[in-house]
Amino acid sequence: MKDRLLPYWLLIPAFIIVLATTIYPLAYSFITSFRAWDLTKSRRPEGFVGLDNYLYAAGESQFLNSLWVTFVFVITSVILTVVLAMALALLLRRKGPMHTFTRIILILPFAMSPALIGVSYRFMFNPEFGVIANGLGAVFPALQGVPWLADPQLAMGILVLTDVWHWTPYMTFMCLGGLASIPRETEEAARIDGASNLRIVFGIILPQMRGVILVMAVLKTIFALKMFDQVVTLTGGGPGTSTETLAYFIFNVGFRWFDMGYASALAWILTAIMMFISIWYVRMLLSERKMATA
Amino acid sequence: MRKTLAYLGERALLALISFVVLFPIAWMFLTAFKQPRDAYSLSLIFEPTVQNFVTVFSEPWNLGSMVLNSVIVATVTVAIAVPCAALAAYSFSRFRVKGRKFLFFLILSTQFIPAVVIVLPFFLMFRQLDLLDTRIALIIVNLAIVTPFVIWMIKGFIDAIPTDSEEAAMIDGASRLRVIKDIVMPMAAPGIMTSSIFCFILTWNEFLFALILSRRDAVTLPVGLVSFRTERGDLWELMSAAGVMITVPIFIMALFIQKHFTRGMTAGAVK
């Protein structure tokens, strides 16, 4: 009797934490998303307004802009991170003191606070005394005096750069894990037959890494959708609203304008997007595992 | 000839990667030891000073209280999350009970919820309870982010431990709890240690919650960085000094678990 219930008893502490810290707030914000609640006017939630908050979002240009910004950011950062990580992993899987050294220091960007990364890059791209801004200006005269973070496209580029710098190491470690688990025989046989490196990578290694690459892409998509810290410390959403991602827009609506109803609705739109991706992700993992055990 | 060229190319590439990784970090460390006038020049030759560190630890910046907040919030979060997560991870790993898949899915999917969604209701709740700007508030919300993550990680480590010795001990009459305490946990200790450090790093670097839920008393290090943006402009040399204070402990921890990194991070995700 006691033993039969033990599995549940072991789950209870963690489950209470998850219930109290995520399920409850989620439910709360779901209900709030159907209400009008301007915190500057009222301490308590006002009446229910049905789908008004969601309908309002559908027509608001700033929300639509943030969706577009998020989309551009996610696509570029996911593609760059995954491709770079794969390339790095292929390079780093060999043995050698320099390889080992690079592998060790790769953990540093990942351990660095994203808020601090934003601050550092803001400093380095400062047109007057930024070391990267000046360095690029010295090497390429055409880039002298470019107002990096004051230009919408360049600001987005630097935002992507900070994110790629932060996440590529983690993804490289995932790739290395994946590479270590695929058998080397086919590759060696192909090498003996005189196949070129390119053919080995594209014809033999990458097809076997399909699963890992898929997992990486989905995970990175989720991390990119959540990215928030660097927007605050690097660009502040600017110039204008050119780097205002959905997460940052929700933050503004909720904690600058204190429109709790609208912010909750926006937050749920973001949650819905992420839930959709994560359900797809878990399903994919389950089917991969089935394939692996079959 | 072609071989040496490829060899040199590979070395050059590795050197370039190391440079890209290390340069922003090195620049921050250098700036932290520069006098204000040197911080705004690009020279590598300067008279090093520790004045910036003295400044950030005194009025009005008071980095000391932020360090204390960060240490307390991260430590308490780890101390609550890891034991609870370890028990849950064991249960998920060893028992095939009803509803297990659903529960695991539920816990995993909460990891994908954007923090900004969670913080909104918490802000309202803490306001009602008068808990805004307290460390307790930060610990509670941080648990939301790290707990599912740590369950996932520790489960990966426990899955890798063979069940033979557990079964043998149970046949000898040891209770399940004893088995967990005396056999499983010691074997999973390196994994649990790695997960704890990870959990610590995540909480230490956490920014969004602290930005919204703290004003003055409970401000943590990453949020403290923002306060160096003043009317006089950004005080880069002080920001860098604060940056060094944020990164040094975390870098030491990260290098400490570097070996387990690949395994720990990928165990849950790939398997």
TrEMBL record, chain A:
Entry membrane topology = Multi-pass membrane protein
Keyword Membrane part of the UniProt annotation: yes
A single cellular component GO annotation: plasma membrane
Subcellular compartments: Cell membrane
The UniProt keywords, alphabetically, are: Cell membrane, Membrane, Transmembrane, Transmembrane helix, Transport
Residue ranges occupied by any ABC transmembrane type-1 domain in the UniProt entry: 67-281
Q: Where is the signal peptide?
A: none
Q: Which SUPFAM superfamilies match?
A: MetI-like
- GO biological process, any: transmembrane transport
The UniProt entry, under Pfam families, shows:
BPD_transp_1
List all membrane-crossing ranges. 7-31, 67-92, 104-123, 157-180, 200-219, 263-282
Family, per the entry?
Answer: Belongs to the binding-protein-dependent transport system permease family.
Q: What is this protein called?
A: Sugar ABC transporter permease
Taxonomic lineage of the native organism? Bacteria, Pseudomonadati, Pseudomonadota, Alphaproteobacteria, Rhodobacterales
UniProtKB/TrEMBL annotation, chain B:
Task: Tell me the superkingdom of the source.
Answer: Bacteria
Task: Identify the GO cellular component terms for this protein.
Answer: plasma membrane
Lipid bilayer topology: Multi-pass membrane protein
Domain ABC transmembrane type-1 as annotated: residue spans: 67-257
Q: Which SUPFAM superfamilies match?
A: MetI-like
Q: What keyword terms does UniProt attach to this protein?
A: Cell membrane, Membrane, Transmembrane, Transmembrane helix, Transport
Q: Transmembrane residues, as ranges? A: 12-33, 67-90, 102-124, 136-154, 183-204, 238-257
Q: Where in the cell is it found?
A: Cell membrane
What Gene3D superfamilies has UniProt attached to this entry? MetI-like
Chief localization: membrane
Q: Which family does it belong to?
A: Belongs to the binding-protein-dependent transport system permease family.
Could you tell me which InterPro entries the record lists for this protein? BP-dep_ABC_trans_perm, MetI-like, MetI-like_sf
Instruction: Indicate what this protein is called per its UniProt record.
Output: Carbohydrate ABC transporter permease
Please list the GO biological process terms of this entry: transmembrane transport
